[in-house]
Write a structure and sequence with these properties.
Layout: E1 8-9, H1 12-21, E2 24-30, E3 39-45, E4 47-49, E5 61-67, H2 71-82, E6 94-99, E7 104-106, H3 114-117, E8 124-139, H4 144-165, H5 180-187, E9 190-205, H6 212-225, H7 228-256
Helix pairs in contact: 6-7
InterPro entries: Split_barrel_FMN-bd, TR_PAI2-type
Protein name: Transcriptional regulator
Organism: Knufia peltigerae
């Protein structure tokens, strides 16, 4: 990920929380195969597991699942079976991209300070994203470890989505609400994916590189648009700008101490 200093987010707990809030990630692999395309991508909802939630450094693991009928899945199964010494772990690194809930085109008309004075402005696009890199283990056999992984995965994912995404605090839907035989049939048609995270990078490209006058113009511009998406962008631009200013003040105070 290209990370300008103004846009980079290095706080690991914040990056883990971003994934929890935006669990749909694009799973990307590059696996050489005579039968399937080398580069394949699949959107998957993920869970992130850490042993210590208070840790400032633990990257954690991702858990997800995919349909066996997916050609992407077939390529992964082929690869791990050919790499039999890996214990189901893919030799190649993988990547997962998570995108924030809102993004938007930014018109140069919002740059109320620079545009009138020099005209040296161009359009851009504001967005937020987290990229994960790591090693993938594929649970695709008929062994007890795979059965346990899949049962835990679908139960935990349903609970996360029902309680944290949907906000149901009483009587959320659970896997146990579905007939056991039906669930068993579905489990036979999916594989589990576990990612040992080795690198975690985040980016908020939200106009915080701009001077205060242009930044305020962006905020007012999006507020004028008035849609839910635009208002969310405005608040994020404001928050990230305030964070940038606070960090600059802290560095200045530290340098003068």
């Amino acid at each position: 990920m290209y990370l300008r200093a103004a846009h980079a987010e290095f706080n690991v707990p914040a990056l883990r929380n971003f994934i929890k809030q935006n669990p749909l990630g694009l799973f990307i692999t590059a696996v050489s195969s005579a039968n399937f395309p080398t580069i394949q991508c699949t959107h998957i909802p993920w869970l992130i597991d850490v042993q210590d939630e208070s840790s400032e450094a633990e990257l954690g693991k991702l858990r997800g699942h995919m349909a066996k009928a997916n050609p992407h899945t077939k390529a992964l199964i082929e690869a791990v079976q050919q790499q039999s010494s890996g214990g189901g772990t893919l030799g190649e690194d993988v990547s997962i991209v998570f995108t924030g809930p809102v993004h938007h085109y930014v018109t140069p008309k919002f740059y109320v300070e620079t545009k009138p004075s020099t005209g040296k402005v161009v359009p851009t696009w504001n967005y937020s994203a987290v990229q994960v890199y790591g090693k993938a283990k594929v649970y695709c056999d008929d062994g007890p470890d795979t059965g346990t992984f899949l049962q835990t995965q679908i139960s935990d994912l349903s609970n996360h989505a029902e309680t944290n995404v949907m906000g149901y605090t009483t009587k959320p839907w659970t896997v146990d609400d579905a007939p056991t035989r039906y669930v068993d049939i579905l489990k036979r048609n999916i594989v589990g994916i576990e990612i040992e995270i080795t690198r975690l990078e985040g980016k908020y490209k939200m106009s915080q590189e701009l001077g205060k006058g242009d930044r305020e113009g962006v905020i007012r511009g999006f507020e004028t648009i008035g849609t839910d998406e635009a208002l969310s962008i405005a608040r994020t631009v404001e928050d990230r700008g305030n964070l940038k200013d606070a960090q600059a003040q802290a560095q200045k105070a530290k340098a003068s101490a």
